[in-house]
Design goal:
It is a single chain. The chain contains 13 helices and twelve strands. β7, α8 and β8 form a beta-alpha-beta unit. α1 packs parallel to α11, α7 runs parallel beside α8 and α10 packs parallel to α11.
């Protein structure tokens, strides 16, 4: 079985409890205080990990690169706050990384971060990160994928804004260096994303085609998406969190506040409990009802001993558990009655 073991006795595996990542991302707005509040939300809500983003703006963007549409919608399109300047304000220093990691350990939640450049990969690796998350924006960045994969640590790769051929090329890099220690995440790269574009059947397609662990990175502001994803069977789930949707920044509007996220985690665990393990059996709550509601064989008329039992001699009724189960019909029909039975008497061997 494909399995990734992590700290705090956490495991990512097929047909196991979904590994839940609270995506803090850049919603700390450069503040260690807000970062710690995000970690608190993750821990108090029951998430397994909290994930930030690690980058050096100079390494990942040109100073005059145009903003994405949702950045314009959330932060405006003015020269005073270019995308480059926005990213500079969201960088996490080495000191801040160390403080965040220490606080995650204190709160018993796994620290994760997405590196967007090779310098950031080295920074995180030197800090002892146990697993890398690669953003959808770098799915086609084969240089970075190879660099991360050579660190021989588990990888989670999001696949938004891509087609199957692009995913397959990235999959081959991960497979080459990591064997089975990686997860492919279905994701839709819009913030928020329309429910109709969630395309959750891709999860099963990934399972069938790649035979690997699969998860869902959720930007849909509707619980229907995660419930459906759980039904298909995901091993990892990721959702953005924020201290407040009213804070300035590009990702707050597509994030959940503490109360919402806590309710979502509870709903995920309830859905998982309802899904069960796939093994059909009599459930504990059914045991008392089984004999009372099921039917048992009874005589439909007086039957003398030694009579060849025919269909009109026997019927099935509720007896409260006395007699042969109705499923024994073919075991007794056309056989000699071993004793006499009165009408409506349970057929007992």
């Amino acid at each position: 079985m494909q399995k990734i073991n992590l700290s705090f006795n956490k495991t990512i595996a097929e047909n196991k409890k979904c590994f839940i990542i609270a995506e803090a991302g850049v919603n700390h707005n450069g503040s260690i205080s807000i970062a710690k509040k995000l970690i608190d939300i993750a821990s108090q809500s029951g998430a397994d990990a909290v994930k930030f983003q690690t980058f050096f703006a100079d390494e990942i963007i040109l100073e005059k690169a145009p903003k994405a549409r949702y950045h314009i919608e959330t932060t405006g399109n003015n020269e005073k706050l270019s995308w480059y300047e926005l990213l500079k304000s969201q960088e996490i220093s080495l000191k801040m990384h160390k403080e965040i990691i220490a606080y995650c350990k204190k709160r018993k939640v796994i620290f994760l971060s997405t590196p967007y450049d090779m310098k950031s990969v080295d920074l995180l690796n030197n800090l002892g990160i146990e697993m890398f998350k690669i953003a959808s924006t770098d799915l086609n960045n084969h240089q970075l994928l190879e660099y991360i994969s050579k660190k021989k640590k588990p990888v989670i790769l999001s696949t938004a804004m891509s087609n199957y051929d692009e995913v397959e090329k990235s999959y081959k890099i991960l497979k080459k260096f990591l064997k089975n220690k990686f997860v492919l995440m279905q994701c839709t790269g819009s913030y928020p994303a329309p429910l109709k574009d969630a395309n959750l059947k891709v999860i099963q397609s990934f399972k069938d085609k790649f035979k690997c662990l699969v998860g869902y990175s959720d930007h849909v502001m509707d619980d229907a998406a995660i419930i459906a994803a759980l039904g298909v069977g995901i091993s990892v789930y990721e959702k953005h969190i924020t201290v407040s949707k009213n804070l300035p920044g590009p990702d707050h509007r597509a994030s959940l506040e503490k109360k919402e996220f806590k309710q979502l985690v509870k709903k995920i665990r309830n859905v998982e409990a309802a899904l069960g393990d796939g093994k059909k059996r009599v459930m504990p709550c059914e045991v008392k009802n089984r004999d009372k509601l099921r039917k048992f064989l009874v005589a439909s008329k007086n039957i003398p001993s030694g009579k060849i039992l025919k269909s009109d001699d026997i019927t099935a009724k509720r007896t409260g558990g006395t007699g042969l189960q109705a499923s024994n019909y073919f075991d007794v029909i056309n056989k000699k009655s071993w004793k006499s039975f009165k009408k409506n008497e349970p057929i007992i061997k």
